[in-house]
Amino acid sequence: EVQLVESGGALVQPGGSLRLSCVASGFPFSAYGMTWVRQAPGKGPEWVSSIITGGNKTIYLDSVKGRFTISRDNAKNTLYLQMNSLKPEDTAMYYCARGYYYTVPRRDYWGQGTQVTVSS
Fold first, then answer.
1. If DSSP codes are grouped into helix, strand and coil, which group holds residue 74?
2. Residue 34: what pLDDT?
3. Which residues does 114 contact at the CB level (< 8 Å), separation at least 6?
4. pLDDT tens digits along 57-79
5. Residue 118: how many CB atoms within 10 A of its CB?
6. Which among 7, 40, 52, 95 could disulfide-bond with 57, CB atoms 3.0 to 4.6 Å apart, if both were Cys?
7. Using an 8 Å Cβ cutoff, are 114 and 20 in contact?
8. Contact 79, 24 (CB under 8 A)
9. 38: Cβ contacts below 8 Å, ≥ 6 apart
């Protein structure tokens, strides 16, 4: 069965950094693109970033370009999101999802999420 387990979320001050991880199992990880999605309190889900199978092409939400970096380690079945220069508006539950998308994907095969809170 497909499993996606996010971790790494925390409370961090504005300007700080976090690295989120998503460990995948139950499917051939290297054969799928992957996506990060976030959902802030009281708002709908927002697409953040996607990466192709080999990792050499990445796309980002405009508001996180230059601050966030998506990457993957296919040998470890793990997806990452390095987040630098964090802002309060980055506060959200962050989810990984199987597949390469340009917008919010259907909710099939999302993980349980990890909470990121940016506050002073």
1. helix
2. 97
3. 6, 7, 8, 9, 20, 93, 94
4. 999 999 999 999 999 999 999 99
5. 20
6. 52
7. yes
8. yes
9. 45, 46, 48, 90, 92, 93, 94, 95, 116
Reading the block at residue 3, the tokens are 């499993």
Q: How is the beta sheet containing 34-39 ordered, strand by strand? A: 11-12, 114-118, 92-98, 34-39, 45-51, 58-60
> What span, in angstroms and rounded, lies between the C-alpha atoms of 17 and 118?
10
| Identity of residue 24 | A
**Six token digits for residue 87:** 């802002």
In angstroms, the CA 40 to CA 67 distance is 18
User: What are the backbone dihedrals phi and psi of residue 88, each rounded to the nearest 5 degrees, phi first?
Assistant: -55, -35
For residue 117, what are the CA distances in angstroms to 19, 28, 53, 58, 92? 13, 32, 29, 25, 7
- Structural contact between residues 48 and 37, judged by C-beta atoms closer than 8 angstroms: yes
Count CB-CB contacts under 10 A for residue 54. Answer: 10
Task: Please report the pLDDT score of residue 119 as a whole number.
Answer: 97
Using one digit for the tens of pLDDT, what is the confidence trace for 42-56? 999 999 999 999 999
Query: How many beta carbons lie within 10 A of that of residue 73, not counting itself?
Result: 12
Token digits of residue 49: 């970033």
